[in-house]
Amino acid sequence: MKNSKIFVYAALALSAFGMQSCLDYDTPGDELNANQETTETIISSGKADVIDYRKEISAAELKQATREMRTQLGSALKAIYSLRGGKDGNAPAAHAYQFAYSLGPDNYVQYFCVPHSDFPYSSFTLRSTYDMCKGSIGGPGAGFSAMKLDMAPTLNASKIDYMPEIKAIFLMLFNYSAIENADLFGPMPYTDFKNLKEESPFTYDDVKKIYYKVEADLDTAINCFKYYAGQHLAMVDKEDADGNPIYVLDSDGNKIVLKTVAGKDSVDADGNLVYKTEKEEKLVDNRSKDYKKQIGSTIKNRVQLLSSKYVDASDLSVWIRFANSLKLRMAIHMTGVDPVNAKKWAEEAVDPKNGGVIEKESDEIALYVSKTGTAHPLVEITGSWHDAVIGASFMNLLENLDHPYMKYLFTKNEVALAKSPRAVSGTSAPAVTPKGSVYVGMRNGVTPGIGQAAAANPYAGYSTLDKDYFSICQPPLYFMKVSEVCFLRAEGAIRGWNMQGEAKDFYEKGIRTAYLEDRDSPQKEYTQYVEQYLNVDAPKDIPYVDPQGRSKDMRSVTKVGVKWNDGDSQETKLEKIITQKYIASFPYSYESWVDLRRVGYPKLFPILGTRHGDGSIKLGKSNVQTAVNIMRRIPWAANDPQTKEDIANSGLPALARDADMGVARDIQMQHLWWDNGASNFETTE
Question: What contacts 70, CB < 8 A, 6 or more positions away?
Answer without folding.
Answer: none
